[in-house]
């Protein structure tokens, strides 16, 4: 028995990449344990030993797969960190390697509750990692201690998505500066 | 000949409602001029006289159909207007009557370029109507004259969507206050 399913089998990264590639290429319905096993060259029994369902595998893949990782910036200022973070999110939303995966997860609605749940888990774990940006900004006296990191990340990530998907417009550094300006200034009001 | 296709035929509202109902119930692929004609009791020739394609009809329906309209608030303060507007957007995203339509438009990605384009047109026209909120706030001296309304609306609407779709969490008045606090304060910084 493995210590923890979170650790994953030896070929975990290959399995994760296969799962998110299948999601991006063929969509959620075509993503099956069978297809992941075949394409990654791993026995189906092995997959089921680690993940009870394709949804469990997908949730793990979204959280752990290397292309979906963002580095948590540490630039020395709150505004610098938000700018770097917004740039990373914009990259995930637009880069060849990740745009289709992002679109699949972001468009999961009531009709794909398991995929939506995997997305919720992904964004919840990411928010936990992003908290350090706020802890450091509070320690530096840049923002109030009662700031809600979730609200700030929603504003930033939501605006980037609105610009790209709702308006069909490109995200450039000027746009990132504009949203960071509002958010960074707004968090200093009492 | 009608003066302008934007005016629409006599049964325009029925046709619009039928089109957005079909989109919500069956999805973009099942939405055809044939189906709209049948369900709304309007001759297909009439539809084509006004709209050259289902995409043109859909774009008109999104912009004009009553359930998707939002009233532009005029509360006397920028913060009050943003709060009311955020409440209206939250309602569109969650109400029984509109949530499925919103989900269909918001999830239109590269695979549904015509639906995405109809969405872009919808949000562009809506932004034009929202500008008066900013004009009045500038006239009252509440915000700087170089404020970009698109940036502010992206932040608000994007955060509401992120909260609901990415995080799977409910939007309550406290959340709306929190995002409006950041945005209204942030737009006062120089």
UniProtKB/TrEMBL annotation, chains A, B:
Keyword DNA-binding on entry: yes
| Top-level lineage group | Bacteria
Q: Which UniProt keywords apply?
A: DNA-binding, Transcription, Transcription regulation
Residues within the DNA-binding region(s) = 32-51
Q: Name one GO molecular function term.
A: transcription cis-regulatory region binding
| Ranges where the HTH tetR-type domain occurs | 9-69
Stated name of the protein? TetR family transcriptional regulator
Provenance organism: Nocardia camponoti
State the organism's lineage.
Bacteria, Bacillati, Actinomycetota, Actinomycetes, Mycobacteriales
